[in-house]
Amino acid sequence: MTAAAAPALERRRPAFSLGRWLEREGVFSWLMVAPPVAFLVALVGYPFFYGIWISLQNRPVAQAGEFIGLDNFIHAWHDPIFRQVVLNTFVYTIAATLLKMVGGLGLALVMNQEFRFRNLTRALLLLPFIVPTVLSTIAWQWILDPAFSVINWLLVFTGIANPGPSWLGNPHLAMLSLIVVNTWRGLPFYAITLLAGLQTIPPELYEAATIDGASGWQRFRYVTLPLLKPVIFIVTMFSVIFTFADFQLIYVLTRGGPANATHVFATYAFDVAMGAGQFGQGAAIALSMVPPLALIILAMAIYMRPSKS
Amino acid sequence: MTVERRGWTMRALKLWLPLGVSLLFALFPFYWMAVTSLKSNQELYSRKVMPLVVHNPTLKHYVDLITETNFLEWTWNTFVVAVISTAISLLFGAMLAYPLARMRFAGATLVSFAIAATYLVPQPLLFVPLADLINRLGLGDTLTSVILTYPTLLIPFCAWLLLGYFRTVPVELEDAARIDGASRLQTLIKIVLPLCGPGFISAGIFAFTLAQNEFLYALIFLTTTEVRTVPVGAIAELVKGDVFYWGQLMAAALLGSIPVAIIYSFFVEHYVAGLTAGSVKG
Amino acid sequence: MMHESSFVPPYDAFFKNKLAAAYEKATGIKINYDVVSVGSLQTRVTTAAENGTGPDMTHIGFNWAFLFDEKFVDVSDIAGEIGKESGGWYDSAAEAVVVNGKWKAIPFGNIGQLMNWRTDWFKQAGYDKFPDTWDELLEAGIKLKKAGHPFGFELGHGFGDNHGWLYPLLWSYGAREVEADGKTIVIDSDETARAIDYCRRLYKETMVEDCLGWTDVNNNKAFLSEQISCTNNAESILWSAKKDFPDMAKVIDQSENPKGPKGRFHMLNPLCHAIFTHTQDQKAAKDFLRWLMKPEQAGAWYDVAVTYYQPFLHAYDDAPMWKVEPRNLPYRDALKTSHLPGWPAPLSRAQSETIAKFVVIDMFAKACAGKSTKEVIADAKGQLKQIYRQA
């Protein structure tokens, strides 16, 4: 209740203390943080816990669920396809991430030299990362077709093999092909990001190391690598998360074939939930990817922990 | 003389050779797309001609793509969706990142843990409940449905990138502004944000790329032609049964990536600078 | 109304421009025709059924009538009327949509799968007619592969072209996954073993290696690029050939699947229309389907697609569209021996799971990739047991 006699004064005072209150770190922080947190709780938290709830049910599509505890997880554990899916996902993620890491670092080092058209090259190299994945994957479907593949054409032309290898028909080659396509899409991002990291390393450090008689390898090992660690960690984490949960690429190229040789968590969960209409099982399969993913990331975090210089 | 030549050989070996191989690897599929999109169907399926060259180029697939499908509409939709969801993600990302970078407050650990946990939530687990939520809000088949759901994928990444960036702003600058009587919000807007431009650009481009590329949510939430985005539209209307309209698909891939490629070529410098400036020091 | 994007572009256009317009003119009700890409339809139907929103009517396939039983309106009444009006339904129509004695959808047409083959190359190898039995097919294939024209049958994780020949193969050797009671697993039989041994030989001795990784597009691509001389596919190959490769189209023919020791079989791939229970005005939806299936409308719609969708109604057995392309006639005849995967067991959830997990396909595929017949049957048996126990 404000007194009518001195409205201006009265109004300013509460406003002033409100301002003071707003300036408190805790209050200001929470006012900032609250809207996005609420947003994420509504659109990630709620569906996530709902998903967990579904995973504990026998929940066929278009029917009411029935609580069955951990049966879906036990079922998955005894499912031979599920075991293969776990193995495939790990092979796919680890191989693709390693390739991207090594290749990306190599490419970044190469591009860290002075040369003409560097900006243009950098923009061109990012193209695979930009183009919509479903569409670029369809292009790869031609490139990996034995009858049209340039590699096969070369092999046949030079007489090394005839017919050339079947890139998606052979279970091992199919996995390899997917890893290559994934690397193709992800490597540029890796390289460009690491390049940016390299450019923040002060040249004086290299000069000092050279004066101390360090070889090229030693400079890389003791100057570049430690300083680059945080960047490597971040891009690797992005990459692991995206590769582990990859869906589009595999779905378009093989849908998990031949004979499940390339099925991964996301594609299998999708097939079981959508194809078979078993939401409970599908949710359980999707949920099973959380602990291993969390473990990988935790392990990386510990390993890559910036060493105190 | 010999020294010079040796230098040149070394340079070729250390620079041009690996660079050339990488460019070939990165760009070959694009060459393939371009070639495919310019070939007539007869030539496309022919194994008798050398596949790497177009013998009778035709623009038919491009014309068909633009006149017979709603490709331009999809492109516009994709653009609208990507821009708005990127803006939301940047705003929310910054609102999360700044307090975490600068302030002490109760629950900070919990919030940062929650953001990290968001990365780990698998998309295949979310879409059934999300579809339910979207439909209850009456947003099925509207662009709003994806504009609202994409930020769930983007906010954590934006927050993370920006967090590192906010930390690079010297605290002294902020303290000085506060002593001059600026409120926290004023300090943030007038002092901190202008210094973090590159950070926003890189986070923004990253988010934009992911948003225009997203497939699963768009597939489930957008079913009418008019509201589709490029990836879903192309797949839905250029794949008929077991027959792919290869030429048009490849034309769509090329045309679809041009807008982003242009944005990248403008910002690539900032993008690169912003991507790591924060994280290296952070 | 939601529909999978048709392989035949005029088919979708005909509905949008002619049928919907005509109906709006006649009744004032506007029908939205919404096209969904192949393979995404089930995802869309699932979300619509789960959330009770979205389209009122939808195109369904396979055993979805059962899967979404509770979410679809009983349309037995109009199904009966339509059957009476148009010469009666094929038996296979009921197999696909009748759940607990009720019609849950109106079958529109079957997208059959047949043997597609090159008459010129078969002739060179000494065959004027398509081989009548699987054994003769193997013989022909061996000759053709030697001549540089191998076969290519999908053995990967596609939607249709894999099931289209592997189930008929299994059945024609007298093998089954499950008995008609829907409970007893009988995959572990000598018949299955013989079918697998045959399939392995057919793959190794007649096909290109790549088949194992194929999805539905690949055999079309391989056939049109003249890599293979024979595959199992729907009408789409002949269609594309007529459009883009008129010369090749002249030497393509389509035939029924070969016979096995226990007969000849085909895959049933029905396209049906169902009404969601969340539809506000169910009567209007029924009226529309009823109107759609009258000979004036349905007949015209079938005609546009020229037998790509083979009617389940006997009144169309001698429709003029069959004369447009006599090479499509075997599709009509195949309808009599067509069944859904899982046959002879009744519709069930287990069927869908078997399909989604590619149990039967991978049983054959693993054998082709080198595993022993015993092993792959044991794998399939284990999986089927788990699947059917749950359902």
Q: What is the CATH architecture annotation of the domain at 68-171 and 197-281 in chain B? A: Orthogonal Bundle
The secondary structure category of chain B is mainly alpha
Low-confidence parts of chain B: 278-282
Q: What's the story with the biggest beta sheet of chain B?
A: 2 strands, antiparallel
Tally of structural domains of chain A: 1
Order of helices and strands of chain A: HHEEHHHHHHHHHHHHH
* Oligomeric nature of the chains: heterotrimer
Major sheet attributes of chain A: 2 strands, antiparallel
CATH topology of the domain at 68-171 and 197-281 in chain B: MetI-like fold
Cα end-to-end separation of chain B: 48 Å
Shape field of chain B: globular
- Based on CA inertia axes, which overall geometry of chain A fits? flat
Strand portion of chain B, in percent? under 5%
Give me the CATH superfamily of the domain at 68-171 and 197-281 in chain B.
MetI-like
Strand order of the largest sheet of chain B: 1-2
Number of helices of chain A: 15
Radius of gyration of chain A: 27 Å
Helices, strands, pairings?
The complex is a heterotrimer of chains A (309), B (282) and C (391).
Chain A: H1 7-23, H2 25-55, E1 57-58, E2 66-67, H3 71-77, H4 80-111, H5 118-125, H6 127-130, H7 133-143, H8 150-157, H9 171-199, H10 203-211, H11 216-244, H12 248-253, H13 265-275, H14 279-287, H15 290-303
Chain B: H1 2-38, H2 41-44, H3 60-68, H4 71-102, H5 108-120, H6 123-136, H7 143-168, H8 171-179, H9 184-195, H10 197-213, H11 216-221, H12 230-238, E1 239-240, E2 243-244, H13 246-281
Antiparallel strand pairs in B: 1-2
Helix pairs in contact in B: 1-13, 3-13, 4-7, 4-10, 5-7, 7-10, 7-13, 8-9, 10-13, 12-13
Chain C: E1 2-4, H1 9-27, E2 34-36, H2 41-51, E3 57-60, H3 64-67, H4 76-85, H5 91-97, E4 98-99, E5 102-103, E6 106-110, E7 114-118, H6 119-124, H7 134-146, H8 163-172, H9 190-206, H10 216-224, E8 230-233, H11 236-244, H12 246-250, E9 252-255, E10 266-267, E11 270-275, H13 282-292, H14 295-304, E12 310-311, H15 321-324, H16 329-334, E13 338-339, H17 349-356, H18 359-368, H19 373-390
Parallel strand pairs in C: 1-2, 10-13
Antiparallel strand pairs in C: 3-11, 4-5, 6-11, 6-12, 7-8, 7-9
